[in-house]
Design goal:
Layout: H1 2-15, H2 21-37, H3 59-79, H4 81-91
Helix pairs in contact: 1-2, 3-4
Length: 92
Amino acid sequence: MGTVVLSGAVVLVVLGFGNPLYWLAAAGVLFLYVRYGLHSSAPTAPGPAPTAGAAPTSYKAYRDRRDKQAKWERRYRRERPLESRRQERERG
């Protein structure tokens, strides 16, 4: 996402040599990206927090995260039995 915004800003700057209004647009795009886009990694759907790359700081934190993930998986299987069976068939 960041590379798309930066490359778009560069294009707007290059186009700005013909029309300075594009420079304002590039500044606006960069401002909005810095203001709202950098920390937009919050989960959009309910469920466990995405911590795939982050290592837990302690065994207790790991255990809590693992238990919470197991709870969500049990709930998913209970609420969507057909979908969970289909996913099991695809895995194995």
